[in-house]
Amino acid sequence: MTVPRSHPRYESLRIREMVSAGFLSGAVALEGVMAHGRGEAFDYILGEETLLTAKAAIRAAAATLLLSSHPVISVNGNVAALCSKEVVNLSLTSNSKIEVNLFYDSIQRRRIIIGMLYRAGAKEVLGLERHSMIKGLESARRMVSHGIAQADTVVVPLEDGDRTQALINAGKKVITIDLNPLSRTARTASITIVDNITRALPILSDYCKEMKGYHTEQLAEIAEFDNMANLKECVRLIKERLDEYIDA
Amino acid sequence: MTVPRSHPRYESLRIREMVSAGFLSGAVALEGVMAHGRGEAFDYILGEETLLTAKAAIRAAAATLLLSSHPVISVNGNVAALCSKEVVNLSLTSNSKIEVNLFYDSIQRRRIIIGMLYRAGAKEVLGLERHSMIKGLESARRMVSHGIAQADTVVVPLEDGDRTQALINAGKKVITIDLNPLSRTARTASITIVDNITRALPILSDYCKEMKGYHTEQLAEIAEFDNMANLKECVRLIKERLDEYIDA
Predict the structure, then answer these.
(1) Which of residues 176 through 205 in chain B touch A, CB cutoff 8 A?
(2) Longest C-alpha distance within chain A, in Å?
(3) Which residue of chain B comes nearest to A45, CA vs CA?
(4) Which of A158, A227, B4, B125 has the fewest CB atoms within 10 Å, i.e. is most exposed?
(5) In whole angstroms, what is the distance from residue A78 CA to residue B207 CA?
(6) What ipTM was assigned to the predicted interfaces of this complex?
(7) How close, in Å, is residue A198 to chain B by CA atoms?
(8) pLDDT tens across B56-103, in order?
């Protein structure tokens, strides 16, 4: 499909095409295509823009990453299809490792996704082989590489609630990017960025770059974050938007 | 995937599997898989139940169908994957024709969907051949069979806004089933049922059966319907649900 740049839905349709291409190339599971649709609906309700609440969460996330000793970015098929370059960039600005971890796992999908990340400029991608186990998870995802196993902070964008809970139980800080502010993942994570990953990741990288020279005390202050209060404020903003629709 | 009936997400996961199966069988387009995800998100926000506003819309829709001389149910891949039997049942209770009409059209998909409807018990399915044109539509969908061409009322579940507008412009009454109360389709249709199609269609059939003996005047009164007022009330109910989340 050729969508002209002037089309009002250009950005949304462009992203949709990336997911479709990801499915056809074997990186995105069919369930991931559906999950993208869910994300589209929530983004539509947000007004397809990064809310002030999201910016606050991104700022706290950047400080948290810079304070971490072993930060890791967990990547699945949708993340790779939408933002391989942005993941690589964030790994550089935040000094994080990259690890592939899939809900609908297969060695072939892992390989395809790792290839995408290398083509996007990654120096090292973990996750092809798995030696460690996260307790409290039934699915194949309990098996992880040494990146997530040793991490103190994990960025898990587009994640399922079980895994977020298991990582929290394992004593790790979890930063998630989830367009549904009501999801279990959103409520379980240490920091939830309610935003489209394609908008949020570049901002997160920018904040990491900007704060690189900050003192530890300064970062610790910025990293202080009340996740539930932020989510509630986000839902309040969504309700305001619905009011505009009603009055329109 | 085998999901136990006791699983809290059983119904949603069962429906998801029907869409996946529809994709694998060639009835559902990849874009339809994504669209299902969008519907899931909106249904989640509704609380996955038929709201009172939806019941009111369904009642008006039933009366409108019974008052129509040439009602037609337009079916696409997602509708066939989710409710072929319910479509056949509604065609009997409302004396409506069935016509296949696809956004991502191909003769092969049309054939697959027509086959599904015949297997579900349909006596006649239109749409394989197209002789007529709906004005004001750019896409392949402007071509229709004589069912939609001659219809005075068209049920268009899971529809795009352009087509709804074109059918309205052609002087037809349009009944849509759309989980997004803010969509252009929802705002354009004569009657919008904001509900999951798998819940709404059986209720619509039941109302048609129940009202079969009603007088024309009685039906005309029930068919009187303020669509925008109903949509606004629906959005108000959604906002109330969001409040419960905030307070939870």
Answers:
(1) 180, 182
(2) 56
(3) B182
(4) B4
(5) 43
(6) 0.91
(7) 18
(8) 999 999 999 999 999 999 999 999 999 999 999 999 999 999 999 998
